């Protein structure tokens, strides 16, 4: 299991320190990991740089004039819907596709003339591409044979990888004798076995069940830090990206919609697209009415009144905006609260019990719905809120984010 927090420390709890290889001075608790922020250091030079990169397939634009910097030692996630260009971006970095315009630099060196096998990167493909005639162990050992390692060292490395992906008992099987998830773990082990300095993983955990997926996420984080390597990981799964990444690039149609730490992407999305893509969110449309004490007053037809939102946004009166509020930031009470700026009455329309959380969907006066969620911190709740009750949803001005894009 990993022993530190990622990004802004939104995921997991700090665990005891473990000696780290490759990142001296960063060994220790999550708080230390939080200090890892080379992107904030103007003197730091990126390891990977995309500069104005474009890629078209026929008329279709897969990557649209994209700039991106990834720093040495980063665990970087590319996140976005199907077809947004994630694999294309990675394949260009690995050398399997050529950009139509722009440059890709690795350690300051333009990669345009460098064939894939000479690039200092290793890629695990979305379609694992295992060798069908080789056993699991032989597949994992394949890339090691080109390194000058002794037979015993290769065997030791293969055994270590087999243990990591929990496939030791299946070492002699051929790929066609494995399940999809098992095949994916072989591909992952093969990609990791060479301990590359830059590893590109395209949906490495997509075929695993939830529990194995979570375990492997932490394993990947540990391996990355032990190797001191730079990982670029593609995922569809936003929770996975939040847990693992130092930074996330949220992509939309070949462009980066937002590039930031997990905590900032979640708490400070820059657009409606990002807010909606990451996590659950209520998007309340409204129009700016006026400003007082650092707060914008927003007329919001869905709530039948005005909302107060803390925001430095520069708006003109009447400008259309979207007020984004996460369900867990909204409290619900039976009596109208008097201590919160934004109070919205609603009728309980739907209740979803998730064990650790319960979500309540409220129907508002204008017919729209508002989603709220509450952590189930107690096993026994006296008179829980139930269907068709009228309740009051409330949130503070700084619980919401004002979006203009
Ligand atoms: N070889 C190709 N020929 C034509 N179009 C392609 C080719 N490869 C990718 N595309 C198109 O480019 C766009 C981006 O594809 P890409 O594979 O990068 O998406 P992705 O973000 O990895 O999606 P997914 O999450 O489904 O894997 C898509 O519209 C896809 O159809
Ligand atoms: Mg893909």
TrEMBL record:
Its EC number is 7.6.2.11. Residues 1-25 are annotated as: Disordered. Keywords: ATP-binding, Cell inner membrane, Cell membrane, Membrane, Nucleotide-binding, Translocase, Transport. InterPro entries: AAA+_ATPase, ABC_SmlMolc_Importer, ABC_transporter-like_ATP-bd, ABC_transporter-like_CS, Mo/tungstate-bd_C_term_dom, P-loop_NTPase, PotA-like, Transp-assoc_OB_typ2. It catalyses: ATP + H2O + polyamine-[polyamine-binding protein]Side 1 = ADP + phosphate + polyamineSide 2 + [polyamine-binding protein]Side 1. Residues 48-278 form the ABC transporter domain. GO terms for molecular function: ATP binding. Coiled coil: none annotated. It is an enzyme of class 7 (translocase). Pfam families: ABC_tran, TOBE_2. The complex is composed of two ATP-binding proteins (PotA), two transmembrane proteins (PotB and PotC) and a solute-binding protein (PotD). Part of the ABC transporter complex PotABCD involved in spermidine/putrescine import. Responsible for energy coupling to the transport system. Belongs to the ABC transporter superfamily. Spermidine/putrescine importer (TC 3.A.1.11.1) family. This is Spermidine/putrescine import ATP-binding protein PotA. It comes from Camelimonas fluminis.
């Amino acid at each position: 299991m990993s022993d530190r927090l990622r990004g802004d420390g939104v995921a997991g709890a700090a665990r005891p320190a473990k000696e780290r290889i490759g990142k001296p001075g960063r060994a220790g608790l999550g708080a230390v990991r939080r200090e890892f922020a080379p992107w904030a250091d103007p003197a730091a030079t990126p390891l990977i740089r995309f500069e104005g990169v474009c890629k078209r397939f026929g008329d279709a634009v897969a990557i649209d004039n994209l700039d991106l910097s990834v720093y040495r030692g980063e665990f970087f996630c590319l996140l976005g819907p199907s077809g947004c260009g994630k694999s294309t971006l990675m394949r260009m970095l690995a050398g399997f596709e050529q950009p139509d315009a722009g440059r890709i630099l690795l350690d300051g060196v333009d990669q345009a003339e460098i064939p894939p096998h000479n690039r200092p990167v290793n890629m695990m493909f979305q379609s694992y591409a295992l060798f069908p005639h080789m056993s699991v162990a032989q597949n994992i050992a394949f890339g090691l044979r080109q390194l000058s390692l002794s037979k015993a060292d290769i065997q030791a490395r293969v055994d270590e990888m087999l243990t990591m992906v929990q496939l030791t008992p299946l070492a002699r099987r051929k790929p066609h004798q494995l399940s999809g998830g098992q095949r994916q773990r072989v591909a992952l082990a093969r990609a990791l076995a060479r301990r590359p300095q830059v590893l590109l993983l395209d949906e490495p955990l997509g075929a695993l069940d939830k529990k194995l997926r979570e375990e492997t996420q932490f394993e990947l984080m540990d391996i990355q830090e032990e190797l001191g390597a730079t990982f670029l990981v593609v995922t569809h799964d936003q929770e996975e990206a939040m847990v693992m990444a130092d930074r996330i690039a949220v992509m939309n149609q070949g462009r980066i919609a937002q590039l930031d730490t997990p905590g900032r992407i979640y708490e400070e999305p820059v657009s409606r697209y990002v807010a909606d893509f990451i996590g659950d969110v209520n998007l309340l449309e409204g129009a700016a009415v006026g400003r007082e004490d650092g707060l914008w007053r927003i007329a919001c037809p869905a709530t039948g009144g005005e909302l107060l939102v803390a925001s430095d946004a520069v708006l003109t009166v009447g400008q259309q905006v979207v007020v984004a509020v996460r369900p867990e930031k909204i409290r619900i009470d039976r009596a109208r609260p008097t201590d919160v700026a934004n109070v919205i009455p609603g009728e309980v329309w739907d209740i979803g019990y998730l064990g650790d959380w319960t979500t309540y969907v409220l129907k508002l006066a204008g017919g729209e719905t508002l989603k709220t969620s509450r952590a189930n911190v107690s096993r026994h709740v006296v008179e829980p809120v139930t269907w068709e009750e009228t309740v009051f949803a409330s949130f503070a001005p700084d619980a919401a984010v004002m979006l203009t894009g």
